[in-house]
Amino acid sequence: MDDELEIDLRKIVRSLLRRWKLIVGLALLAGAAAFAFTFFQPRLYEAKAVIALTRPPFQPNFDSRYQNLSPITLNYKMVKGIAMGDEILDQIIERVPEDEEMSLEQLNKRIDVEAGDETTIVILSVKMKVAE
């Protein structure tokens, strides 16, 4: 039994050349669709800040029985509460350009909070229409 498979490239090339208008038309159509999709997308700029929650470097110790402080343990709700606190939101709203004034509710929709690899790391991202 002979298991050779013979492929004639001339037949394949002729078949492609016969349908060149269809191939070029589909490529142009896909290019035009990709251009239209990217052109009509709203332009949004994103800024990210990494917030590290740490203990103060020096803490007074009034009880000599406690030599070491326990490590910080936070859950996601606590981290999000800290990141979405009034102090941080006020700092963000101060930096919003005048032509894009918004309320705190509108700002909350554009802010995303995610926890980092450790529980003490918070990544805060804000999306705006203006790069400044």
Structural class: alpha+beta
Strand content: 15-25%
- Kindly state the number of beta strands: 3
Low-confidence stretches: none
Number of helices, counting only DSSP H or I runs of 4 residues or more: 5
Over all CA atoms, what is the radius of gyration?
29 Å
Order of helices and strands: HHEHHHEE
Profile the largest sheet: 3 strands, antiparallel
Q: Report the mean per-residue pLDDT as an integer.
A: 78
Shape: elongated
Distance between the termini: 73 Å
Physical arrangement of strands within the biggest beta sheet: 1-3-2
Amount of helix: 40-55%
Walk me through the topology:
Elements (H helix, E strand, L loop, with lengths): L8 H10 L1 H20 L5 E8 L23 H8 L2 H9 L9 H7 E5 L5 E8 L4
Antiparallel strand pairs: 1-3, 2-3
What features would you describe in this structure?
With 132 residues, this protein is of the alpha+beta class. It contains 5 helices and 3 strands. The chain has helices spanning 9-18, 20-39, 76-83, 86-94, 104-110; strands spanning 45-52, 111-115, 121-128. Strands 1-3-2 form a 3-stranded antiparallel beta sheet. Strand 2 and strand 3 form a beta hairpin. It starts with 8 loop residues before the first helix and ends with a strand.
